[in-house]
Amino acid sequence: MIEYMYNKNISIIKIFIISLGYSLLLVYFFPIDDSIIDRGNYLDNAKNSSLIKSYYFDKGIITFFFNEPIWLYINIVLSFFFEPENTLRIIIFFSSFTVSFLLLRNNLQYFWILLLILIFPNVIKNFIIHLRQGLAIAFFLIGWFSLSRSKKYFFFILTPFVHTSFFLVIAMYFLTLALQKLKFAFDVKFIVYFILGFVISFGLAFITSLLGMRQATEYEFIAASSSGLGFLFWLIILFLYLLNGKEFLRKNSFILGMIVFYLVTYFFVEVTARIFESVIILVLLASLELKNKYKIIVVGLFIIFIIYQFISKIDIPYFGYGI
């Protein structure tokens, strides 16, 4: 027992050091100024969150409610103590450290695969570019890995008020729970996710405008110019996941549902790529539960993509979305 606790403590220390190194690399390797896309907006958030909060509040409680108030309050609190650049550094550090620590602590036996997940381009960019979304993902994973249901739901409910993409993510999660409670087979769930994808494709612009969300003016809600390679990649991943039996489908219904949702909306509306990015880590984590022959294929595909992305530096719709 003593030896087990000793080894466990050593593992936690190793995980802490690796996570610390990973997060510090993201904080200090990438520039903090507006040479990175969207960085100017985040610096403005750090400087003027009180004014932004008042602007949305003056438009009504519903508009305020659906424009990420917790994100604004976090910036307001940090701005009392830190300069805007350091506020951003703290957010990047917290998000990347929390996510890497949780992944490694809960799945350390798959260290090398987890390392691939952490350097996956769409994971990294949520920490260094889409800071609001990266922070929401960190909160979401705290809930995801929590053994306490109340703590899990607390952090789940918190996330949409940091990044609005999680309104749909959380809705999909509870929809999946309801479908499982009704003991629907996966083919029925598949149809539900498919229909939801079409509804969101053609109704998202109206919903965001109705609720006064900032996305109503930031996005055109049309199909992005696309080579279709992202669609093909995730279609292959979905197909490989579907080959892993009923237990895998039951356990990962929510994750598979998010892939289906993304594929359905791929050619209709560009913003759903950002929604899919909110659960990309869970989609990648599901590969750890695949049968060995499929796991090798999927990990191989991930490696090919990572190498391609870093060597070519060519944006592929969904993969390169927002970079």
Describe what this molecule looks like in 3D.
Helices cover 74% and strands 0% of the residues. With 323 residues, it is mainly alpha-helical. Helix 2 (39-58) crosses helix 5 (84-106), helix 11 packs across helix 15 (253-265) and helix 13 (229-242) runs antiparallel to helix 15. The longest helix has 28 residues, at 2-29.
Helices and strands in order:
Blueprint: H1 2-29, H2 39-58, H3 61-65, H4 69-79, H5 84-106, H6 111-118, H7 121-128, H8 131-144, H9 149-158, H10 165-181, H11 186-210, H12 215-218, H13 229-242, H14 245-251, H15 253-265, H16 272-277, H17 280-285, H18 292-312
Helix pairs in contact: 1-5, 2-4, 2-5, 5-8, 7-8, 8-9, 10-15, 11-15, 13-15
Q: Quick recap of the structure?
A:
This protein has 323 residues and is an all-alpha fold. It has helices at 2-29, 39-58, 61-65, 69-79, 84-106, 111-118, 121-128, 131-144, 149-158, 165-181, 186-210, 215-218, 229-242, 245-251, 253-265, 272-277, 280-285, 292-312. It contains 18 helices and no strands.
Overall shape: globular
Secondary structure tally: strands: 0
Structural class: mainly alpha
CA-to-CA gap between the ends? 49 Å
Radius of gyration, whole Å: 20 Å
Low-confidence stretches are: 2-7, 314-323
Average pLDDT taken over every residue:
86
Features:
about 325 residues; single chain; mainly alpha
